[in-house]
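Quick one:
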Amino acid sequence: MLTLTHRYRIYPDSAQEQQLIEWMEICRGAFNYALREIKDWCDSRKCPIDRCSLEKEYIISSELKFPGEIQQLNNLPKAKKEFPKLSEVPSQVLQQAIKQLHRGWEYFQERGFGFPRFKKYGQFKSLLFPQFKENPVTNLHIKLPKIGAIPINLHRPIPTGFVVKQVRILRKADKWYASISLQCDVNVPDPTPYGHPIGVDIGLEKFLATSDGVLVKPPKFFKRLQGRLKVLQRRLSRKSKRSKNYEKQRLKVARLHHQIDNTRKDFHFKQAHTLCDVGDMVFMEDLDYRISAKGMFGKHMLDAAFGQFRTIVKYVCWKRGKFFAEVDARGTSQECPECGGFVKKDLSVRVHSCPHCGYTTNRDVAAGQNIKNRGICLISTVGQTGIESACAADLPGTEATQSRQVAKSRKRATRKPRK
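Output:
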């Protein structure tokens, strides 16, 4: 089963927009109420057996079961009788808000942190329509239950053979989008390695450096607009909350954030397609960029969005039939791509100059070449045909391997003994 997701811009009128906003607030209330039940049940199990808290205590029967997903979904018809406003939202859309909460709860249980939080006013920004009797998308409109036809900009047609599975309505700043999931009953094989390999090294000095010697400067979208954003946020802090002027200024800040996000993602997609135009195999490092984002260069790391870029490159390679793989990132900048010798460099040294074989090039380009070499060796060890010859330099008995062994022996000879 092949699933694709296309996002289109939609243009609801003022009445439809107001109705969608009201539905989001109703779903937010259902989400928070269900989360309150879960938190009350959890807090009632925290009390020690031999003492009670001096501040507060949740007294709930010990026989009461955990408010699971099925139980809370079954309670929705009863809640609609008590709160008639819940009936305004389509039943399946309201159910998806409860399911969204329990997906977050299951995710929290798996990794041990990230407890679901209450949604504040305006933080619930999407509605999911999970099922349709017929195709809701035409060339000009998208038909949603209880709301009617909404104009849509179908900038790319739905592929032949695909069926609309579900539609998610998104609100970003003052713009509305429809994220449509399409399914087709076909099996697409994973791309096989072939052709010209490329190693991609990414960093703050250069956004990316390929093994072919291509260097791309970092665009720094957030840093260029940071001054403007600072002015808008200062003006927002001086407005009275929930006032009309506050809402106008909040939209200006949201529009600027949305502009930064769109330009950054557009740049990432263009660079990913450029890599696929040049090479047939793309290799990148398997780094966890969330750790780097917590350091002193956190703002610049988040501005570059390396994790998003790697995900986009992987998606574009799959879509265009190019092979993509991640390789070990340890020591890619401290190793010579020609002889494999260890060349120690700190961040201030931007030129790779090997004292063993005399190979000289840009530091980031050398790292990209090491990534490419490791990717080729990774493929050859898996047993792919037609690639072993490209990795012959790393097989024992060759000149490259012998020079690498000599470099390692020199390193051991010059290493200072431990005290």
